[in-house]
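# nightly structure sweep
# worker-07 picked up a monomer target from the shared queue
# config: single-sequence mode, recycle default, output format = structure tokens
# input follows
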Amino acid sequence: MGSEQAAGYSGGPVQNPNFMPGPGQAGPGNGQYGPGGPGQPGYGAPAQAWGANGPGGPAPSLDDVQVRRAKKAAGSGWRKAVHHMSGGTINPGMSAEERRLQELVARIRQPVRGDYRIAVLSLKGGVGKTTTTMGLGSIFSSIRGDRVIAVDANPDFGTLSQRVPLQTRSTVRDLLLDEHIQRYSDVRRHTSQGSSRLEVLASERDPAASEAFSEEEYRAVARILQRFYNIILTDCGTGLMHSAMAGVLDLAHSLVLISSSAIDGARSAAATLDWLSLHGHDHLVRNAVVVINLPRPGAPNVGINQLRDYFLSRCRAVHIIPYDAHLGEGAEIDLHRLSKPTKRAYVELAATVADDFTADHRRYRG
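# output follows
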């Protein structure tokens, strides 16, 4: 009864103050709960119907009832231990860090208008472009309840499909040749799926065929996928001039640009921004999120704060992904094997990208 008393409950009977007993029913008796007997205020007055306005203003409404929300229990640390050892009677609540994580998750779960397309690119190879595609996509698919897919649009033997268990040998070209795509299960036959629920559509493995992957073919793949997926990530090649790239950039809602912490990687990323601005994609530059991957443990040789300041002067946000031994394996990515700092960095990256989900991008479409 302690919690009820704290909420203002006196421990006595509680009754609708306008309730009038019928024949044979015991009334509330005397005093504060209703009209009393002869000689008391209100005796002989007509009963007022529940819900009608009284002389003092509008009738009570359930909308006015105050609800005291129970504190959420902590999920880790001493707070969780206290809650568990006390049998739930002592609840210190969540820590500031847990509340911050809850806020990030809420941002990641923001609804998407139709579908949202993310292009992940870098002019320089070996800076973690495919790894970032997988890490970002895995966070989205593990936290959100809708469908997320990553497409390998690298014409030069892309390795995206090597980061998930191989469930099919189908490629983007097989999907295009399938004339019976009517429902999600028809598309699923052409994709592989990781433990996070992220699906991957592999690139063409035939060198001759992959070189022929055109802008129109990429657009056709996108038209199919946007019918069945809410978030579509595209792992781009390192070149900006191949045919499919024009379609990727034209259809993208946002850009994730990858840079290493080395000065040559940063210069390549800056050159990419210059090229995009000069070729009609300045809106992607302003809305871009730059990811700086640290290739080894310890402090980098380049001033990270200076790199961050430079990219922030041109783009929406900058995120630093710390070195992680599991990511360095270059194999299938398991979120449970990531270090806490690395996983947290990807969660923060996903939340930043998701902040753009509710934006109206129609003004950029021709």
